[in-house]
Amino acid sequence: MYAIIETGGKQYKIAVGDTIKVEKLEAEAGGKFTFDTVMFVSGDACKIGAPYVNGATVTAAVLEQGKHKKVHAFKYKSKKGYKRKVGHRQPYTALKIEAING
Fold first, then answer.
1. What is the pLDDT of residues 63-72, one digit of tens each?
2. d(Cα 7, Cα 25) in Å, to the nearest integer?
3. What is the pTM of this model?
4. 3-class state of residue 98 by DSSP
């Protein structure tokens, strides 16, 4: 059994026991988080939402809040003496999927 959820403007295919990193959520590490934006649930009978499946939820345990590796962006214009280097670390929330209720 698997499901497709939407969070942070992205869609994730998940199953019970999966560990995923999503855009930062307002949740404490060690707590629980429930998604109600479930777009698809597989099983005996597949349920497809329009856009979301009514009454379907996904429960996940929050493992940690962290930041990804640094990504560098560099701008350069030849013969003009223009150089800019910036770095960015995107925050994330690590989740372990516990249950798919649908």
1. 999 999 999 9
2. 9
3. 0.84
4. strand
